[in-house]
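fwd from M.: "can u put these together and see what the complex looks like"

so here's what she sent:
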Amino acid sequence: MTGEPREAGPLRLGRQSFDVHRRLVMAIVNRTPDSFYDRGATWHEDAAMERVHAVVEEGADIIDIGGVPAAPGSEVDVAEEIRRTVPFVAAVREAYPDIVISVDTWRHEVAREVCAVGADLLNDTWGGWDERLAEVAAEYDAALICAHAGGVPPRTRPFRVAYDDVMADVLDRTLALARRAADVGVDPARILIDPAHDFGKNTWHSLEITRRLDEMVATNWPVLVSLSNKDFVGETLDAPLTDRLAGTLATTAVSAWLGARVFRVHQVRETRQALRMVSAIRREIPPARTVRGLA
Amino acid sequence: MIVSAVLCPSPPLLAAELSGSDPAAAQLREACSAAVATLVASAPDLIAVVGAADRTETWPEDAKANLSAYGGLARSDVTHPAPLAVGLGALLLDENGYAGPRLLRSVGYDEPLSGCLDLAAEISRSAPRVGLLVMADGTARRTLKAPGYLDERATPFDAEIQRAISDADLAALHALDRDLARELMATGWPALQILAGAFGDRQVSTKVRYADAPFGVGYLVAAINAAKE
């Protein structure tokens, strides 16, 4: 069960601390030849570093580096995942001493290697499949994302998944993971929860967890959402991969309004703009310039 | 005695409210509906629905699929939730206006072959003229985009199911490798065994109305009728 909400507080990532009203953009940088959206655009290190420069310029707060696509496909073993991610994490750390570096992995062996070269955050999208991941986060004082994948093994697609109450399951699993992470020594200020749209969910489920995101926010664990160009957007709008930005940004705005604090995205500039709009509507930041009717 | 049978798959998208206007899903629903219409038209004394589920069990006659678990709206008329395959079979009967007696049975994923055959015999004895609606799926690994990703063995596995039914060689379904079925996520294996045993040694005529895998899962819709003596 969900228990009493914890006290809301700043989110600590690396050497930085972000208060509860900050909305952070996490830019996806895949070191894969076959991820669903970018199709290998940043498979080569030079191209990947170019993307890092670009997304930093566009205002990314976090760089999320992944070496294994979420979809099933050719095997990527531990050694290969390390080969894809570790040198690149080291290179990004050297180029940007203060940027928050996240690594999208479910494997503790990989986590240990990337933390050793400067990763600040472990993005465990597959929902605690490898229990030792949290121990590595504790060991390196890294942050940890506790996601809901419905208990399915990594790199599997949902097949007729059913939930009595999908949000209840999301809360049960993510809060259990968060509590366990804290128990093994992860700094509670460095733990986030993620409903993980599309993971172990059909489109109806992903829409429902969006609609009910305030229930996750009410726990006061910082909520991350990963919505970018996903199939639930594609199915909702009957839109191909190249035409999902509007749907992604609409979902981003709703999630931000409901209190999500971190947004994992492909399009940094557009997301940043959408989030600034939400922040201004909520009067958390002023508009950039206001002369209309005021002159 | 079982006089006629229909085979349909049991994906949640068989419920129109879950899949909206997807044209491939609509085509599948039409094929299922047309097949079930022939079953209803054969005027059986009773229609038995069989689908694979966690365990072998008899469900209340008014049991329905709990579509809210798959994202549908919660409905107050689902007083007795049935397992997916059984519930979707009941839905097909409802949609075809069938109001006669029905027997809703699930067969466990792990039910041994002998148990499947016992169940077929039991269903056969349940009325003088029984119509059988078997809800069973092929593999879920037909394509790269399939739920279980591509496995090259999936297409031949499904093709053998189709061949056995097209050729009215139902006994051949008994030879489907169960372990392979599990690997290929062919959840319909035990329900297919009931179809294989439904007509005993009698001759049957068959008609395959639909055989495709638009979402990477093998769907087969067919009608099987006992040949006239």
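replying to her w this: The mean pLDDT of chain B is 96.
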